[in-house]
Amino acid sequence: MSAPSRPRPAAPLGAVAPSGAYSSATSRLTVGVVGTGRVGAVLGAALVAAGHRVVAASGGAGASRARAALLLPGTPNRTAASVARSATDLLLLAVPDDALAGVVAGLAGAGALQPGQVVAHTSGAHGLAVLAPAVAVGARPLALHPAMTFTGTPDDLSRLAGISYGVTAPAGLRVLAARLVADLGGVPEWVGEVDRPLYHAALAHGANHLVTLVNEAADRLRDAGVAQPEKVLGPLLGAALTNALSLGDDALTGPVSRGDAGTVRRHLDRLAATAPESVPAYLVLARRTADRAIAAGRLRPRDAEPLLDVLGRAQQQLDVLGRAQQQLDVPDRAPRQVAA
User: Which DSSP letter does residue 3 get?
Assistant: First the structure.
C-alpha cells in the first residue's frame, strides 16, 4: 500500500503578525536557533531551504559549532541572548529536555525575549508549561517536536520529508504551527499538554529501545558465531517492522506467539549461561508479547499456560538471585569489637 500524499504549502510562511495571522509584507520569517545540536542545526537548515532567514545561532561545544558551519554556513554564532534578540519572528530552542526550563527562564530574565515573538521548542517531553516565563513577557509559546532520529548531517534533510511533528499550541497559533510544519515538509500531530509525557514515552520506547534491542540481538548472534549479524538481522527486522506497522499484533510470529514453552526455556537456559545480562529484558518482552498474543487471539489461554509457567519460574529465579545480590551488597553494619 502506498503512503498517502502529504499536502505542501503553496508559498513559504509569511511574517507573523501580533494577532497570529500572516503579514503579506514579507514572505519569510526572521529566525534564531538556540542549540545547534543534531536537531537544531538540521531544522535551521530546513527553514532556510523553505525560504526563511536564520539570522543567528547559538552553539557552545566544538561539535555544535562545526555542525552549524556545515548546515548553516555564514550564520553568526552568538550567545543565546543575542540570538533571541535577533529572532524577531521565531526563536527555535533545540536544547536538551532537562536544560530547557533554565534556558527559557534565563532568556526571559535577561530581557532577551520580545512581545509577539514566537518561542518554539523541539522537546518531545515538554509542552507549553515550560515556556511560561516567555509567555509572561509577551512571547507566544509553541511546542514543535519532530518524530525522527537525527545524525546532525545533511542526510537528515531528506529524511524530514513527510515526517510527523508532535505539536502543542494555543488556539491562536494553530494555523501558524500547521504552516510552519508544512514548510518543514512534515505533518502536524496535535498533542494535548497533559499528553506530552505519554507521547514522548511512546516514541522513546519504540525508537530508543529498538536500538538497544537490535544491538542485543546482534551481540547474541556474535556469541553464536555469526560474523556479520547485520546481514542476518537487516531483512528480518525490516520485514518485522513493516508488518508490525501495517498489521499490528497480527504480525506476531515466533515461539512466544505459538506457545512453544520448550523453545523459550532453552532460550533462557542458554542466555543465562552466555549473556545473563540479557535475561531480564528477554523475560519482560516475552511476557508482554504473550499478553498481547493472548489479547489478540493469536495464542489461546490454555496453550499459553506452559509458556507462562516457564516465564514465571525464570522470573522467580531472577528475583531470588537479585535478593541474594542485594544482601551481598549491603555493608556489614554490626558493631566491630576493638582488640584489647
Answer: P
The CATH number assigned to the domain with range 15-191 reads 3.40.50.720
Q: Which of 27, 22, 25, 83 is nearest to 54 (CA)?
A: 83
Q: What is the pTM assigned to this prediction?
A: 0.83
CB 190 within 8 A of CB 167: yes
Summarize pLDDT for 3-22 with one digit per residue, the tens.
Answer: 444 433 333 344 444 434 44
Q: Phi/psi at 145 (nearest 5 deg)?
A: -110, 120
| pLDDT tens per residue across span 258-311 | 999 999 999 999 999 999 999 999 999 999 999 999 999 999 999 999 999 999
Give the start-to-end residue ranges of the domains of the chain: 15-191, 199-327
Indicate the Cα dihedral angle 299, 302, 307, 311, nearest 10°.
Answer: 110
Q: How far apart are the first and last CA of the chain?
A: 85
The set of cell numbers assigned to 180 is 510552519
The amino acid occupying position 39 is V
Question: Which is it for strands 22-23 and 15-16: parallel, antiparallel or unpaired?
Answer: antiparallel
Closest CA to 45 of 16, 75, 65: 75
Find out whether 9 and 109 touch, Cβ atoms under 8 Å: no
